[in-house]
């Protein structure tokens, strides 16, 4: 916020915590909008996240994260997508489907672009940029031919390259033409402010450079390439120099060659790189430099030159181009999409960036000294160019099918963009209906009224207002009461009225996560709290889908008491858009966890684990196990095995024996853990997170058998039974790691198309993180050593020991702290060099290794 005025001149009443109030005497004031403060900026926070699921419900190839956030009336359902937020400035239809677009300035000193040039299959359209964008015919451009490229040349001239020649348009509208010889035509070209290079059919390169008078001069020799040219690129002319010294040429024999444009060895080859696939486009940019700062007098630093290569199979390569010798080194690869990658150079925050277009558009840019390659959350684009105008100083003009779009990117550096849909109470959990992709969300709020009770209370208070006053003031009181009833204050700003302990309000809602429309909202009665939900099919009811909801009545959390629990069974109707209540089943405790199991349903009722089946009037209990100590908080099923997590006693592995109709605990964990989130990884392995911020993975050893018999005869030795201290077999701890914040959801998911699976967690304070498995010993060894050196070379700011922090409750085991390893890129170069020498690598190899493992699984 910015302080606009000090608020000492208004007539508002003042309240101070120092002034004594009589018992029960409140202060009255009426709220108003902000006057003295002006909001300048806000950052989105996800805190608190209560539940999250990862799924691709919008059919976008890349999955979205659906998170339930917030508390009370301010809670929301947020859809997070990996990508930059794009603001659409303008969209206009074109007379046909264009194949390219460029923007040019009239003069080198102009701040804004003057023309947008759009090329079609057989024509070129020139639009002038002013208050509006309209077609012009006197620009000097040839309109009857398609354009291959155009650019501003020198200080105030323009150049247009088309298949039959080059058209050089001077500022006084004089035109010089250069025609192609004989039957040849121009296939590819590359231009910057002082140079033009064209490739004729047959792989012949012709080079032009501008002389001091502003004429384009052809270099005397021409260069024959060994095969057809498929793409070319020139960098920008560096400040204070005459020319860009390198030309990159992609040939049809799957190579990229760097050719010198220096007068001493013009058009001689410098270096070459072989590619796995033919290249589609090239782009040379200077990245990583910083601008000179006027306030502090810091000089700007020069960035490195990078050659970006877009391949036809949808892969982008980024290679370092040595700005002295022209050698190519340190190639990074990234898969972008299914279509060939086209590259465009644009400017972002004063430095160069690359827009890469495949089936999704990506932006490669540097932000806060780090390289980012982030997709744009927008539909597929085909061609683009940078765009600068008064309304939009750093925009992009792009074409998609038959439309011309002007876009702007604002929140650079963000990993996700989010769309949020408001909810009414604190959301607890949701399930996804697979056929319609709708979400069924349960929301429950402690110390709150339901809508019906709220209206009753309001009515009652209004009546009391009238009754309390004497007969003379009745009229005024009646008016006040009417105002009170009609007044609608937004609860998301003012908060909801507090109802008192033991009062609960709950909602079950079906919401479409893409549009945010609520399709059905069921209000439960006052003092009913919803704790669990599952989507089920029963063996006896064919393909009908049901939603089972676990509800507690009059629950008081401490000391714990309740008058009873219920299981509400709803049937999904209208293709998954509405719910019909079939019946309620009373149970004696809180139904804390529900899971579908072999055509029936497993329910954790308090500390009892039970199997129920559907009946006509209520759910029928079929089997139960009483050996879980406190409260079943979650249930996972794998085949005949059931993994039940206890609220303060870790995991219990249960086997269901169909013949005897018994649930038998055959193994459990040796450590007490207060499990808040869990996820089954495979038949023997489960990941869990506890209330104190630890994540752990537990695996059953290979010799554990789940054919354990309860001992019917009683002739086993006492210590073999393992009854008092849990099961007779114990699980092994595979890994422990202390995160430092409470985890609210764990899920095994693939975050990028073609990537590997990882374990994604969300935390109460709004963090999203992931654990990835190493696939090779070599990688593991490398990162283990890097972490070891980082611990000594880069201790935390507050002087805490990193190892003891990560082992806060249990010794850290089999986990390498990726956040610590990532700090390598922000260390000072001398330390980077010393650490990488210890690892027998160069600093760029270490940061490449860090980037590789990150982009293999995530962003």
TrEMBL record:
Keyword Cell inner membrane: no
A Pfam entry, by short name: CPSF_A
Domain RSE1/DDB1/CPSF1 C-terminal positions: 506-825
Parts forming coiled coils: none
Alphabetized GO MF terms: nucleic acid binding
An annotated GO cellular component: spliceosomal complex
Alphabetical keyword list: mRNA processing, mRNA splicing, Nucleus, Spliceosome
Protein location: Nucleus
Ranges for domain RSE1/DDB1/CPSF1 second beta-propeller: 87-408
Gene3D superfamilies for the chain: 1.10.150.910, YVTN repeat-like/Quinoprotein amine dehydrogenase (2.130.10.10)
Listed InterPro entries: Beta-prop_RSE1/DDB1/CPSF1_2nd, RSE1/DDB1/CFT1, RSE1/DDB1/CPSF1_C, WD40/YVTN_repeat-like_dom_sf, WD40_repeat_dom_sf
Example GO biological process: mRNA processing
Start and end residues of each stretch annotated as Disordered: 1-26
Primary localization class, coarse: nucleus
Family membership noted in the UniProt record: Belongs to the RSE1 family.
PANTHER family found in the cross-reference section: DNA REPAIR/RNA PROCESSING CPSF FAMILY
Protein name: Splicing factor 3B subunit 3
């Amino acid at each position: 916020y910015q302080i606009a005025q000090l608020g000492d001149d208004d007539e508002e009443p003042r309240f101070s915590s120092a002034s004594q109030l009589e018992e029960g005497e409140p202060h009255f004031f009426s709220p108003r909008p902000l006057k003295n403060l002006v909001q300048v900026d806000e950052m989105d926070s996800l805190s608190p996240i209560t539940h999250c699921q990862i799924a691709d419900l919008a059919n976008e190839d890349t999955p979205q994260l659906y998170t339930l956030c917030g508390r009370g009336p301010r809670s929301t359902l947020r859809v997070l997508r990996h990508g930059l937020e794009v603001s659409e400035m303008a969209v206009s239809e074109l007379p046909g489907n264009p194949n390219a677009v460029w923007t040019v300035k009239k003069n080198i000193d102009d701040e804004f672009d003057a023309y947008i040039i759009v090329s079609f299959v057989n024509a070129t359209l020139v639009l002038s940029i002013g208050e509006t964008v309209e077609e012009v015919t006197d620009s000097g451009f040839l309109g009857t031919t398609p354009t291959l490229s155009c650019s501003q040349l020198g200080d105030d001239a323009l150049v247009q390259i088309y298949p039959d020649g080059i058209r050089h348009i001077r500022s006084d509208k004089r035109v010089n033409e250069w025609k192609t010889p004989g039957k040849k035509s121009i296939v590819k070209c590359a231009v910057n402010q002082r140079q033009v290079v064209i490739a004729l059919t047959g792989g012949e390169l012709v080079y032009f450079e501008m002389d001091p008078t502003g004429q384009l001069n052809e270099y005397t020799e021409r260069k024959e390439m060994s095969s057809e040219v498929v793409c070319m690129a020139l960098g920008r002319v560096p400040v204070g120099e005459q020319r860009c010294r390198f030309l990159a040429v992609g040939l049809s024999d799957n190579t990229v060659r760097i050719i010198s444009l220096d007068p001493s060895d013009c058009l001689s080859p410098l270096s070459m790189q072989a590619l796995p696939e033919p290249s589609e486009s090239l782009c040379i940019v200077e990245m990583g430099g910083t601008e000179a700062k006027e306030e502090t007098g810091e000089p700007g630093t020069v960035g490195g030159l990078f050659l970006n290569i877009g391949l036809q199979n949808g892969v982008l390569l980024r290679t370092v181009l040595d700005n002295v010798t022209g050698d190519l080194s340190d190639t990074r690869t990234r898969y972008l999409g299914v279509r060939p990658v086209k590259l465009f150079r644009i400017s972002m925050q004063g430095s160069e960036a690359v827009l890469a277009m495949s089936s999704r558009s990506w932006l490669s840019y540097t932000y806060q000294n780090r390289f980012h390659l982030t997709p744009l959350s927008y539909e597929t684009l085909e061609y683009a160019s940078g765009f600068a105008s008064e309304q939009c100083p750093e925009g992009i003009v792009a074409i998609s099918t038959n439309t011309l779009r002007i876009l702007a990117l604002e929140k650079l550096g963000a990993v996700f963009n989010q769309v949020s849909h408001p909810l009414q109470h604190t959301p607890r959990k949701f399930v996804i209906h697979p056929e319609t992709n709708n979400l069924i969300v349960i929301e429950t709020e402690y110390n709150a009224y339901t809508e019906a009770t709220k209206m009753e209370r309001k009515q009652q208070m209004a009546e009391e207002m009238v009754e309390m006053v004497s007969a003379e003031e009745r009229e005024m009181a009646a008016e006040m009461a009417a105002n009170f009833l009609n007044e609608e204050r937004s609860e998301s700003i003012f908060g909801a009225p507090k109802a008192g302990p033991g009062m609960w309000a709950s909602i079950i809602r079906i919401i479409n996560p893409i549009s945010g429309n609520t399709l059905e909202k069921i209000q439960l009665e006052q003092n009913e709290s919803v704790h669990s939900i599952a989507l089920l099919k029963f063996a006896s009811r064919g393909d009908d889908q049901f939603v089972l909801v676990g509800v507690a009545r009059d629950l008081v959390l401490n000391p714990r008491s309740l008058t009873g629990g219920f299981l509400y069974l709803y049937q999904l109707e209208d293709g998954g858009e509405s719910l019909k209540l079939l019946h309620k089943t009373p149970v004696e405790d809180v139904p804390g966890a529900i899971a579908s199991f072999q055509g029936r349903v497993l329910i954790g009722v308090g500390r009892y684990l039970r199997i129920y089946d559907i009946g006509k009037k209520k759910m029928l209990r079929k089997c139960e196990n009483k050996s879980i100590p406190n409260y079943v908080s979650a249930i996972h099923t794998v085949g005949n095995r059931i993994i039940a997590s206890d609220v303060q006693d870790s995991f219990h592995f249960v086997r269901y024996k169909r013949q005897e109709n018994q649930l038998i605990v055959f193994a459990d964990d040796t450590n007490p853990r207060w499990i808040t989130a869990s996820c089954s990884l495979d038949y023997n392995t489960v990941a869990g997170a506890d209330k104190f911020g630890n994540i752990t993975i537990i695996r059953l050893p290979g010799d554990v058998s789940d054919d354990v018999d309860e001992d019917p005869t009683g002739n086993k030795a006492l210590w073999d039974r393992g009854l008092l201290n849990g099961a007779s077999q114990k699980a092994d701890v595979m890994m422990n790691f202390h995160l430092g914040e409470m985890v609210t959801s764990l899920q095994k998911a693939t975050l990028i198309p073609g990537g590997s699976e990882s374990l994604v967690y969300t935390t109460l304070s709004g963090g999203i993180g992931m654990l990835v498995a190493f696939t090779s010993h070599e990688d593991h060894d490398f990162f283990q050593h890097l972490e070891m050196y980082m611990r000594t070379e880069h201790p935390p700011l507050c002087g805490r020991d990193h190892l003891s922090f990560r082992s806060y409750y249990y010794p850290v085991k089999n986990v390498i702290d990726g956040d610590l390893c990532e700090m390598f890129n922000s260390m000072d170069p001398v330390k980077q060099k010393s650490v990488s020498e210890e690892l027998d690598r160069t600093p760029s190899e270490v940061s490449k290794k860090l980037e590789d493992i990150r982009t293999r699984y995530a962003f």
